[in-house]
Amino acid sequence: MIRELVATTARDERCPSIAWAVVRDGAIVDGESLDTVYRIASMTKSFTSAAVLALRDEGVLALDEPVAAYAPELAAVRGPAGSAPITLRRLMSMAAGLATDDAWADRHLDITAGEIDQLYAAGPAFACRPDERFEYSNLGFGMIGRVVQRVTGRTVQQHVSDRFLVPLGMHDTTWLQPAHDRWARPHRVEDGTIVPDLPAPLDDGEIAPMGGLWSTVADLTRWITWLDAANHPGADDDHPLRSASRREMQRINTYIGIAESAGHASPAGYGFGLNLRDDATLGMVVAHSGGLPGYGSNMRWIAGRGVGAIALANTTYAPMSELTLKMLHVLHGQGLVPAAAAPAAPLLQAAAERLVALLNAWDDAAAAALFADNVGLDESLARRAAAAARVLDVHGPLTLQAVRPDQATSGVLAVCGATSGTTLHIEVQLSPEPAAGVQWYEVQPT
Predict the structure, then answer these.
(1) pLDDT band for position 220 (50/70/90)?
(2) Where residue 420 falls among pLDDT bands split at 50, 70, 90?
(3) CA distances in angstroms from 18 to 14, 131, 295, 356, 406, listed in the order given
(4) Where in the sequence of the chain do the CATH 3.40.710.10 domains occur?
């Protein structure tokens, strides 16, 4: 069914080619044209954001410092009266208020430093004040590139290549048009006919940090697998960017609203160089699209589940984001998306065993040792002991069957009554104290 989706999309959107893959646990389980190079446009923003966070982690720069403190030539870039200063955090999360500029920026990837300095000095247009709402800005990522160059003496492009592309083995991902012949030529649709997009693709330039990369499905599989690895329980791989910073990229900083794609409406937001959707069926989905004259692309994965999809096309603004979302829903419908991994919860497990033992043989001293101090105040131990006795009268002694954590300190216990044979559920929350005593529990009716 995935291949039918790809074929239908290629036909309907008039794409000369689509390179695609379904990814599971870091491996491509199905796909086509894995090593053909396409321009991935705004998918580049995740690479730029990762480079900034690496520099932040090293103490080279701060996300909340005004960018003019690093690059004085950006001092003229100011929002309307009363605006907060422009910072890297606001630029990376599309909260700076700069006017949405896709059509303009897509034809200025190769803008020179002198040309963009004139724009900065004149004061770019703002759609709103910073932090007022989501406003997608490519120019903002050009400003990020300028800050990085001022504080390190090297371009974002150099940082991305050295820090990520080489260590992750992404050898076909470049900032320049490939010198080999293994790349998809750009096309557009005119009057229903596919024609070559001219002039030739723009070269590297001052706004390239927003969308200049070329890549392949095979290389991008490495990228999304590495980013998502940070979401898995116990993730501790900090090379070449610590897992905490990778998770930071994949958390909503700026709320977008309810976004509809491929027939699915979900609350959506923007992290750092990545989009997020809280999909009612799939859970949190991380993605980013790319669109430039001649190309349309998308990468998408379900956070922490090891499942993703990538699609790259060589037609202007081809809606690959809809294709990848459909692909993930097909995989879910076929039972191929694993359940979210339960968090490690040793404290909850220990408390669960003690709580079930207490309910089976109530003892006030044991209760006082297990419970946080609020429990007896919320309801007396005598009343709780009586409630436990009533449960035993109906169901008999309880056996702990399973602990199902929601988080490390909360979850649901499945217990079975020896007499009734019924499975009961007990909701439990631990306190934030070092001893993590039970602060609340409730036996649910069957």
Answers:
(1) very high
(2) very high
(3) 10, 37, 10, 56, 39
(4) 2-333
